[in-house]
Backbone:
């Protein structure tokens, strides 16, 4: 195509535009035929690439003159044709809006927030620890020497960190390592709770999971005694479940406390009246916490003189509290994220 052929084509397009305006002044049709992606003028302007810069300048100006003419016509007659039918949106402002699904906190988070609130009232602050933990913090400093049989109480996922010299890492089996980390970091008096995920090689059933959430609490100062522990836990449990909730302490063994106690709370489901209660299994009591006085060796490991300082510590599963607070009798509900069930909880 040479210059004159191009100009001839341009004037033919102009003629066709003029007759289109006279015969069938349809807005969409005019736009599509001349300026659309495959419009005549669009295609002709695209051919400009074949010409020399000088010719391109001249032809481009002529082409754009026609383009402007067509655009001007469309602009001026927009209202007459009702605008772009094809490209306009019909908005019906009277239609009711789509239902919005608002999000909300997961029951475990709700429970954790309540627990934190409860302990904050008692002067505790919150501390977080790493999920991949050194064997030393998870076991050894807590008085579980390498060959101690008590390690078998916690089936552990061991791992190692590539770039670390110390290869003894694991997914923490409890939140107790935060006790060690905090005691090394802060000075007494300290009242700390530490929530978070913990991991154990457990088979999943109605009350067990390989990953679950714990909360650790401890108080280290001069003259901390078992009665402080009892008062603290009683205040906490009654704050969470109401004044009716009863607590029972019985002796138990954990390597990092001496003496150690198992703390049970009266069954919130059946109050001890249902022999077939799935949760307490007819006992009327639920094992809720492990607790005790921090073992002198643990205090020593953190550089504290056990003759001067003492402390109590406790740990509990957050899932257990969630189940009692929301009346859930199967732990798995909390991880399956079935909206039909989660919605019932709220
Ligand atoms: Zn029960």
Residues:
């Amino acid at each position: 195509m040479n210059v004159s052929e191009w100009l001839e084509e341009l004037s033919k397009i102009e003629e066709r535009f003029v007759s289109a305006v006279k015969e069938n002044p349809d807005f969409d049709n005019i736009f599509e035929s001349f300026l659309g992606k495959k419009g005549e003028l669009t295609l002709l302007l695209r051919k400009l690439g074949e010409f020399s810069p000088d010719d391109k300048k001249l032809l481009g100006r002529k082409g754009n003159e026609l383009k402007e003419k067509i655009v001007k016509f469309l602009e001026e007659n927009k209202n007459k044709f009702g605008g772009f039918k094809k490209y306009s949106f019909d908005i019906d402002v009277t239609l009711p809006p789509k239902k919005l699904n608002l999000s909300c906190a997961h029951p475990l988070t709700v429970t954790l927030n309540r627990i934190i609130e409860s302990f904050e009232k008692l002067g505790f602050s919150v501390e977080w620890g790493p999920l991949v933990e050194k064997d030393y913090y998870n076991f050894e400093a807590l008085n579980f020497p390498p060959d101690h049989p008590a390690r078998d109480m916690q089936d552990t996922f061991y791992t190692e960190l590539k770039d670390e010299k110390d290869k003894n890492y694991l997914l923490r089996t409890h939140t107790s390592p935060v006790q060690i980390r905090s005691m090394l970091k802060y000075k007494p008096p300290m009242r700390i709770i530490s929530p978070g995920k913990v991991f154990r090689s457990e088979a999943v059933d109605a009350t067990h999971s390989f990953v679950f959430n714990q909360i650790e609490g401890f108080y280290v100062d001069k003259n901390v005694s078992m009665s402080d522990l009892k008062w603290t836990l009683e205040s906490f449990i009654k704050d969470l479940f109401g004044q009716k909730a009863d607590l029972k302490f019985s002796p138990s063994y954990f390597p990092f406390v001496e003496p150690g106690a198992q703390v049970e709370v009266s069954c919130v489901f059946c109050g001890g009246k249902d022999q077939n209660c799935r949760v307490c299994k007819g006992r009327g009591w639920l094992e809720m916490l492990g607790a005790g006085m921090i073992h002198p060796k643990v205090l020593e490991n953190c550089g504290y003189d056990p003759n001067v300082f003492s402390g109590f510590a406790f740990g509990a599963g957050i899932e257990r509290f969630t189940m009692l607070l929301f009346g859930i009798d199967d732990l798995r509900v909390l991880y399956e994220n079935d909206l039909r069930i989660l919605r019932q909880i709220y």
Observations:
- The pocket of zinc ion is lined by residues 267, 269-270, 274, 277, 279-280 (CB under 6 Å).
- DSSP finds 13 helices and ten strands in the chain.
- The two ends are 74 Å apart (CA to CA).
